[in-house]
Backbone:
């Protein structure tokens, strides 16, 4: 299959044997382990540690991580294919998987030293530990340069960190965190530095786990630093380059969230196809009614478009080309498609779609977050429009 993405060049989506293999591994785990337990994890909000370790043991927590650092050594296309399978079984599991792959490992592989890769990436990629990414603060979400978390440099070259971060996915269980803090407030974005944090050390505190609408098994909390000391060898990249690192990592992260949205949308769509065949009204399957057929056709179109756009962004990343705009297009399209598809799925299932006896209402709740985190739909539109117009 070939897709023409305009200025980006031709994209060939003839999947390799290795890509299909990791997709099969993800599908098997999703169907045998994750899907059967998804409802219970959603209800309890318990972190699915055993399942996450299983994903790590099978290379799914570090798909693009080279084998020498504990990963599968695959490419962004393989990551998309695997993420879709996990998300179709349960979005919460795919959220944890996305953070570990895209936000944690990716940034360290790109900007970290050899010692940092060995210490932090390997444990996460193998599923032995959980990673997190701390950028958002209570008063600064989309406006990351307004952060108040401070890292003050000491005479010995270390930094003393004080401040809060909020909405930290996997925060309640993470061993290591990629932290962004202001080292020079006068320089705004150029005054932000990235650090690698060990949560077992003195000065680190976790807040309560957030009670969320969806992806409930993906633990989220506020974290606080009180005179937490970061050593010189725990700076990620160069001092003052943190904002650039964060934006680059989020570009890659948007491919992960687009993949998650495709998985949620696919689950809702497939459930609707099945229900439209089984549910009868007025003496015939509801799938024979034109109104239902119209919904299903639109769901299929939005789902396919979302997957192709996501694969395009992943292909560009794998080719070492710029993919910022394509990732934003994929994330915006896929997240809004997932929300729309889930909405229609509830409508098709009617009362049963509103009931917790079926997973449809969970798909609806889970889909919403894909329009919010790692850049809201509004931010994606700004990224796309600014690229197209050249205006700020």
Residues:
């Amino acid at each position: 299959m070939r897709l023409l993405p305009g200025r980006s060049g031709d994209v060939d989506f003839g999947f390799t044997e290795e890509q299909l293999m990791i997709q099969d591994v993800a599908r098997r785990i999703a169907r045998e382990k994750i899907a059967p337990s998804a409802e219970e994890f959603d209800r309890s909000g318990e972190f699915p540690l055993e399942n996450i370790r299983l994903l790590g043991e099978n290379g799914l927590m570090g798909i693009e991580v080279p084998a020498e650092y504990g990963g599968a050594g695959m490419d962004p296309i393989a990551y998309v294919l695997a993420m879709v399978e996990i998300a179709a079984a349960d979005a919460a599991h795919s959220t944890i998987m996305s953070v570990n792959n895209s936000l944690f490992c990716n940034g360290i592989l790109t900007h970290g030293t050899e010692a940092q890769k060995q210490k932090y990436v390997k444990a996460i990629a193998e599923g032995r530990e959980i990673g997190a990414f701390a950028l958002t603060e209570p008063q600064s979400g989309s406006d990351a340069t307004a952060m108040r978390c401070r890292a003050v440099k000491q005479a010995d070259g270390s930094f003393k960190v004080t401040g809060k971060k909020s909405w930290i996915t996997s925060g309640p269980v993470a061993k290591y965190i990629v932290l962004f803090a202001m080292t020079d407030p006068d320089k705004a974005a150029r005054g932000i530095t990235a650090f690698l944090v060990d949560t077992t050390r003195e000065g680190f505190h976790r807040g309560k786990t957030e009670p969320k609408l969806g992806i409930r098994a993906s633990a989220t909390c506020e974290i606080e630093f009180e005179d937490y000391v970061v050593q010189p060898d725990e700076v990620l990249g160069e001092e003052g380059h943190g904002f650039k690192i964060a934006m680059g990592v989020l570009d890659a992260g948007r491919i992960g969230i687009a993949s998650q949205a495709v998985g949620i949308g696919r689950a809702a769509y497939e459930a609707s196809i099945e229900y439209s065949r089984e549910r009868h009204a007025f003496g015939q399957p509801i799938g024979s009614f034109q109104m239902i057929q119209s919904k299903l056709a639109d769901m299929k179109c939005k789902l396919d478009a979302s997957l192709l756009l996501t694969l395009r962004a992943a292909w560009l990343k794998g080719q070492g080309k710029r993919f910022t705009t394509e990732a934003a297009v994929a994330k915006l399209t896929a997240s809004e498609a997932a929300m729309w598809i889930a909405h229609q799925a509830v409508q098709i299932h009617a009362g049963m779609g509103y009931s917790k006896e079926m997973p449809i209402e969970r798909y609806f709740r889970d889909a919403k977050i894909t329009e919010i985190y790692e850049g809201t739909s509004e931010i994606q539109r700004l990224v796309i429009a600014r690229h197209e117009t050249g205006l700020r």
